[in-house]
Amino acid sequence: MTLLLILLVGGIIGWLASILMRTDAQQGIFLNIVVGIVGAVIAGFIVTPLIGGAPITSGSFDILSLFASFLGAVVLLAIVNLFRRGSVR
């Protein structure tokens, strides 16, 4: 059940991050899920030591965890855009 929740929440977080970074037209459902989950892993290493909490991949689904995972997904998309286009947006 936790894996299903991680996939669902990861997909929503990846979708919201892709809307913010204007890459939504280039991504499908599968890539949104991947971005959300990889963003949560990045959040576990970079964002959560700065703001506290835990990423969604640890099974924690509170507001701070969702926000940290969202920031991790945005950081991931910014890095991808930097290499793909030469600019963050």
TrEMBL record:
It comes from the Bacteria. InterPro entries: Transgly_assoc (IPR007341). Keywords: Cell membrane, Membrane, Transmembrane, Transmembrane helix. The chain crosses the membrane at residues 6-22, 29-51, 63-83. Its main location: membrane. It is found in: Cell membrane. It is a multi-pass membrane protein. Pfam families: Transgly_assoc. PANTHER family: UPF0410 PROTEIN YMGE. Belongs to the UPF0410 family. This is GlsB/YeaQ/YmgE family stress response membrane protein.
